[in-house]
Amino acid sequence: MKNILVLGASGSLAKVVITVLLDNPEIKLTLFSRHITELIPLTHERVSVVKGDVMDLAQLEQAMQGQDIVYANLAGELELMAKNVVQAMAKQNIKRLIWISSMGIYDETETDHGSILDPYRLSAKVIEESKLDYTLIRPAWFTNGIEVDYKLTRKGEAFQGDQVSRRSIAALIDKLIQKPDCAIGESLGIAKV
Ligand SMILES: NC(=O)c1ccc[n+]([C@@H]2O[C@H](COP(=O)([O-])OP(=O)(O)OC[C@H]3O[C@@H](n4cnc5c(N)ncnc54)[C@H](OP(=O)(O)O)[C@@H]3O)[C@@H](O)[C@H]2O)c1
């Protein structure tokens, strides 16, 4: 069994990812969120739910106990959240982190997204400077399409595309969880081209 902690489990992307991950009988999920009623539809024998706030380091450390991989699907004060996640993972001796960021944080897109992406830039820097085995994912605009159709771009490459289905991002995360040695220390842009 592989234990995965999902931070921001009530998020629009996380809900799709969770459904995909549960197809693998070798996976157990701990869903962490401030609003756990949102998680009732995700009830499953391999799912446990923790009500908590990422800003509360003690709650975060508690939720990290016994986890193998952390998948962070957060929005808000991302720089502080990233610092707490890095600190809590170090304390619990967990190495593998999958962190959802955004396209545009390295000015790698044709559009200038401006300061709205600052929390994404600052949190990415925290993760990249950590000693964790991280993968940053930089998605294009999410769609509800059911297709799995995506192209990855690496840090330093121009971003391609401007949309991607949540289902495609879920497929990538599923792959990374099945092969956790893949894409360590990478920052992957994902879009349908
Ligand atoms: N929409 C797009 O097209 C797009 C494109 C690229 C990147 N992104 C980014 O990708 C990320 C994931 O997207 P999404 O649509 O899944 O986001 P979302 O629906 O806004 O979900 C964000 C999650 O963060 C959780 N959260 C916020 N503050 C928290 C805290 N203090 N403690 C614990 N949990 C907290 C929220 O849960 P609770 O409130 O229940 O705690 C929520 O589940 C976001 O950062 C988003 O901006 C989005």
TrEMBL record:
GO molecular function: biliverdin reductase [NAD(P)H] activity; riboflavin reductase (NADPH) activity
SUPFAM superfamilies according to UniProt: NAD(P)-binding Rossmann-fold domains
Pfam families reported in the protein's UniProt record: NAD_binding_10
Domain NAD(P)-binding: from-to ranges: 8-180
Domain of life: Bacteria
Protein name per the record: NAD-dependent epimerase/dehydratase family protein
Natural source organism: Entomomonas moraniae
